[in-house]
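::Amino acid chain::
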Amino acid sequence: MTSDDLWRAALHDFNNLLAGLQGVLDLSSPRLPLDDRNRLRLTSTLEDGKILITMARALALGRHPEPGLASWGEWKAGLEARLEPMSQLFQCPIELVGVEADGIAWPAPAFQEWAAAFTRQVLPWATPGPLRLEATGSLEAWTLTWVGDAPLPLGLQPDAPADEPRNLSNLWLRAVRERLDLSIEETPVGLVVRMARATGSESCRLGK
């Protein structure tokens, strides 16, 4: 990624952000307070803006959160909190379930943030849903499966064309995927993302 790529992506996304804010105002009565739907759209747009700033800082300055581990319950709650606003905005329920996930320590917060950003790319295809996200933990890997027929986002495809979408989300997802060494596969069940770790490592067990 070059500086020009980052600047183009940032300008493109912030232009869309401002257009989203303008859209909320255009659809609202100037004489009345915002209704619940438009207030949600405004709040979600502003939250998207904060996320874009965080992505831009990470790409430009290499500033990433410190890696850590969390229990399955804590990890699940953290990801659900990130998913709830987009679930409401798209009016698409998201069900996060653990398959042999309890008792295993999960990587946080980078993997949670990546999963949330990836879900944001998948949601337009899953709406009206519900979208089921399955999490499986083992001594070999952490695996997330977005159940359904949503395609792999264009910017993450291995043979993406030269004119692929240049936006911060795609650039950030690709950069963090490489940093976390994530593998992505399209399967008949859905999109599967796997984060491998040292085989047999006892450090992945909760409390170790």
User: Anything to note?
Assistant: The radius of gyration is 18 Å. The mean pLDDT is 83. The chain has two domains: 3-61, 68-204.
